[in-house]
Amino acid sequence: MKQLKQIAQYILSLSLALGLLYYVFRDMDFSDFQARAEDLTYGWIYVSFAMALISHWARAYRWNLLLKPLGYQHLSVWRTFLAVMVGYFANLIIPRAGEVARCAILAKSDKVPLSTGVGSVVAERLFDFIILLVSVALVLLLEFEVLFQFLSDLISEKFGQSLSLLPLVSVMLALGLLGMAGMVYLWRFKRAWLRKNAFFVKIESFLEQLAKGLLSFRSIENKWGFVLSTIVIWAMYFTMSFVIFFAWPETAHFGPRIGLTLFVMGGLGMAAPVQGGIGAYHWIVSRTLALYGLPLTDGVFFATVLHTSQTIMLLIVGGISLAISLILFGKDQKVDQQKAPLVKPQ
């Protein structure tokens, strides 16, 4: 039954991705894409590749710092990097499969139990979630009018010009505040009753994991290394998409503020429950760029260049990392089983 559910989720995710992709490209002339591609300066795309790899290496280094307090003092950044890239490779095939895949590789290479690896990834994602929230808040502060226009255009496109965004936002904010007040009341006075609900139990478990993950920072030995690697990860995430602006004359004049907006909006597209953000990323990036005066067809082309270039890089490097992991770590595991018993860290 569980396998059938997973298969159904995969089919639904793939169908959604293909549907979004068709919606975005339904009116596009692909011969124009070839003409635009001839104007690209591919050197900037290769620079973007290098920055992406730096961010992934920094993620591997930071992951090691999280695992050291758990008893794994001698993890190789190279091996952890391979695991990270396998995770990205898996995410392109099955959404949200990357976290388990990279932990499985690390379990095979360095005997880190799967549960321990997954727990460290949860803690890692919590810190990234905080950085993402800060980025979103910064974009809202700097580009509020642009994002407000984005929502206005979206609502007008779907429901007609007669529907005003301001009253709708006001009602949503009022309902949100009312809902928060209700949750605070239930949390303080009806918690025992709430725990009878499976959905509430999941929320409570998530909040507990959130608190545990944040507190885990205290046990990290190299705190500055953790902070600096986090900065490198997110600085490279931003820069690897921003430099693509310079690869095409139509976007070469865009500045860092537009780059930051595109970075956050593109991140929302990548967070959609579809393989590799396919379709969702193209839709949201093209419409975001349209707010800054770029024609929609040009925006779709730019989104395609940015998404496809990174996808190709992840497929190549992730595929090679998977092959190396299966060859080397499989061999290492056989040697370990013959020569030494498995000793669990304290």
TrEMBL record:
Chief subcellular location: membrane
Mode of membrane association: Multi-pass membrane protein
Record's keyword annotation contains Disulfide bond: no
Transmembrane stretches, start-end: 7-25, 40-58, 129-151, 163-187, 224-248, 260-284, 304-329
Sorted UniProt keywords: Cell membrane, Membrane, Transmembrane, Transmembrane helix
GO CC list: plasma membrane
Top-rank lineage group of the source organism: Bacteria
Cross-referenced InterPro entries: L-PG_synthase/AglD (IPR022791)
Localization of this protein: Cell membrane
NCBIfam families assigned: flippase-like domain
The protein's name in its UniProt record: Membrane protein
